[in-house]
Design brief:
151 residues; Hypothetical Protein Ychn, Chain: A; 5-stranded parallel β-sheet
Length: 151
């Protein structure tokens, strides 16, 4: 049993359920770094997070300040511009580039079938390479992973 476990690659999954800048970056950064450390890496996109892997979806991600600030008209636009400037100044890739990096490096991008059905999306709505799984299929994979995180 020990030899079998040591010969298998460590796997991890990350669940992304928000399509905001602060909701998307953690799963992508963690998944890419896990892959670079030699792990199998999957991001499961569900609810609003699924918008990120739709065509042009990463470009539409906003930063919404918490609390009262987020409810002020136009504040999200200002906050998004400020956050994108900070990201750029820190030499952090934009979300579109991170998604491409993730795919090139072998991170699996998985869309939740229930969310697709609920939102009335179809396979053509997503960027190339996105897999579609039911929650049951995701859990069959996740139960054998060493790391499962909800980001």
């Amino acid at each position: 049993m020990a030899d079998e476990q040591s010969s298998q690659k460590t796997s991890c999954t990350f669940i992304c359920s928000r399509d905001t800048i602060d909701g998307v970056y953690p799963s992508l950064i963690l998944a890419i770094n896990a892959k670079r450390l030699g792990m199998e890496s999957t991001i499961f996109y569900t609810f609003m997070g699924i918008n990120v892997i739709r065509k042009e979806g990463a470009k539409r991600c906003k930063f919404v300040p918490s609390g009262v600030m987020g409810s002020i008209p136009g504040m999200s636009t200002v906050a998004t511009k400020m956050m994108k400037n900070k990201i750029h100044a820190a030499n952090i890739p934009c979300l579109e580039d991170l998604l491409e990096m993730a795919q090139l490096e072998g991170v699996r991008l998985v869309a939740c079938k229930m969310t697709i059905d609920m939102m009335e999306f179809n396979e053509d709505d997503f960027i190339e390479g996105v897999e579609i799984q039911t929650a049951e299929d995701y859990l069959k994979h996740a139960r054998n992973c060493k790391i499962n995180m909800f980001t």
